[in-house]
UniProtKB/TrEMBL annotation, chains A, B:
<dbReference type="GO" id="GO:0004590">
    <property type="term" value="F:orotidine-5'-phosphate decarboxylase activity"/>
</dbReference>
<comment type="pathway">
    <text>Pyrimidine metabolism; UMP biosynthesis via de novo pathway; UMP from orotate: step 2/2.</text>
</comment>
<comment type="similarity">
    <text>Belongs to the OMP decarboxylase family. Type 2 subfamily.</text>
</comment>
<dbReference type="InterPro" id="IPR013785">
    <property type="entry name" value="Aldolase_TIM"/>
</dbReference>
<dbReference type="InterPro" id="IPR011060">
    <property type="entry name" value="RibuloseP-bd_barrel"/>
</dbReference>
<protein>
    <recommendedName>
        <fullName>Orotidine-5'-phosphate decarboxylase</fullName>
        <ecNumber>4.1.1.23</ecNumber>
    </recommendedName>
</protein>
<dbReference type="GO" id="GO:0044205">
    <property type="term" value="P:'de novo' UMP biosynthetic process"/>
</dbReference>
<dbReference type="Pfam" id="PF00215">
    <property type="entry name" value="OMPdecase"/>
</dbReference>
<keyword id="KW-0456">Lyase</keyword>
<dbReference type="GO" id="GO:0006207">
    <property type="term" value="P:'de novo' pyrimidine nucleobase biosynthetic process"/>
</dbReference>
<keyword id="KW-0210">Decarboxylase</keyword>
<dbReference type="InterPro" id="IPR001754">
    <property type="entry name" value="OMPdeCOase_dom"/>
</dbReference>
<dbReference type="InterPro" id="IPR011995">
    <property type="entry name" value="OMPdecase_type-2"/>
</dbReference>
<feature type="domain" description="Orotidine 5'-phosphate decarboxylase">
    <location>
        <begin position="16"/>
        <end position="254"/>
    </location>
</feature>
<keyword id="KW-0665">Pyrimidine biosynthesis</keyword>
Length: 276, 276
């Protein structure tokens, strides 16, 4: 998927919501556990009920790997279901991979070619040759970790390197590896006040923003400081949507929560003259 | 497996060799491709032929994920085979994972509990709460990336942070998260000259050292600067051993290469009075 197509979808749906499919068998409705593939059945129902309110889905691979072969199969079925039934949806493998060049190439192949995701999250610690193999795929997107939403972000990411913070050094250095067509960044919603500075460094790249809801980030703050002419934001919500109810009405309740967020986004887009 | 057991194995086998099981279907002998599970058959033959020369095996997950469900199954079969037939072998999932706390916990569960690895490599960029869930498992080992063997290591890892290099900051900060019983570090063999300084910061932790052979690192240099009283080193070789031959004699040739490295290690251990 191209960046332009994604921006068109955002304008059409008046939403820049991404729904995180972090499926934990301890949290999904009990009646699903009797089915052959409860993870996929849960995802399918959530996707069918919420797709009109969002532009992206983001399964985090940890939640699938934790269930071994069955988990990996559920991940494959989920991305296949999305690609077949909702090809207009932007798909993100939240995998946070990164390795030496020839190994990163295997990861890129796995997520882009075999599974068919539009994008994958990548960790920057190993530098240029660990990221470039992901950038070589046409119409695919590399989403590099910059400033994450967790407390641990302050251990290294905000430390001063070469007279700037490490996460800014990551932005500055990595800018030349790709461009705003194929390179996005993760910036946590819990650190919205950093977004003004971040936008000075990367005015055009999309940001994937986790941390709204359960982690305490504010949608309004993120948009105030992080929005661009092309919107430039994908706001992720996982637990707040998919676990809105643990009863049989889980998909319906998830849709209600997704719809609420989509409505807030519509208001924000209307009030942002540059985004109309 | 405890650290003491690993050290005992090293002394018994006079080897601190780790063999990287990075299986690429384009590189393995053609006759294996006709079999139902060529990846596992290749690993099984390599393991049977080389286990007496090494103390550890390290499959890199990228090479398995690249083959989807079949790849993941081959990884499961490989670790099961190792745990059943060679329980004295230290096993490393080279996965370079790391995510926010509740998500890292899922990865830790996947690699330690479900797959049954002794250790997993973890990326430090997301800080303490992304690493701690791995450290909570008894007799399991977290191998944190410090200074990697690739060129990209110079993009961020060697940059100055708080008056020291980022990789040293990672060592200093992470030391308090675990201890030398459950925390190891990745330090590339291509940067052996850095080991003197590294050993001042972490005198007792084991180091997993990739980059010998195909990547150009020197075994002697690494041992000269990195060895401790408890040896403290696991030297990895992947391509140089497992692809020593692409003909039907691949396992035999792999054993020859592993044996050569083991013999060099025996000489080094004999000449290091502190390691006798």
């Amino acid at each position: 998927m191209t960046k332009e197509f994604l921006v068109d979808q955002i304008r059409k749906k008046q939403s820049f919501l991404c729904i995180g499919l972090d499926v934990d068998l301890n949290k999904i409705p009990e009646h699903l556990l009797k089915l052959e593939d409860p993870i996929f059945e849960f995802n399918k129902a959530i996707i069918d009920a919420t797709h009109q309110f969002c532009v992206a889905y983001k399964p985090n691979t940890a939640f699938y790997e934790a269930y071994g072969l069955k988990g990996w199969q559920a991940l494959e079925k989920t991305i296949d279901y999305l690609n077949k039934n909702y090809p207009e949806i932007f798909t993100i493998a939240d995998a946070k991979r990164g390795d030496i060049g020839n190994t990163s190439r295997m990861y890129a192949k796995a997520f882009f070619e075999d599974l068919g995701f539009d994008s994958v999250t990548v960790a920057p610690y190993m530098g240029k040759d660990s990221v470039e193999p992901f950038l070589e795929f046409k119409d695919k997107h590399t989403i590099l970790l910059a400033l994450t939403s967790n407390e641990g972000a302050f251990d290294f990411q905000t430390k001063t390197v070469d007279h700037t913070e490490l996460y800014k050094k990551v932005l500055i250095t990595s800018k030349s590896w790709g461009n705003s067509q194929n390179l996005m960044y993760v910036v946590g919603a819990t650190k919205a006040e950093y977004l003004t500075d971040i936008r000075k460094l990367i005015p055009d790249n999309f940001l994937l923003v986790p941390g709204i809801g359960a982690q305490g980030g504010s949608l309004e703050e993120v948009c105030k400081y992080g929005m661009t002419q092309n919107v430039g934001l994908l706001i992720n919500s996982s637990r707040g949507i998919i676990y809105a109810s643990s009863a049989e009405d889980y998909a319906e309740k998830a849709a209600e929560q997704a719809s609420k967020l989509q409505q807030s986004m519509t208001v924000i887009l209307r009030n942002q003259p540059k985004c109309k």
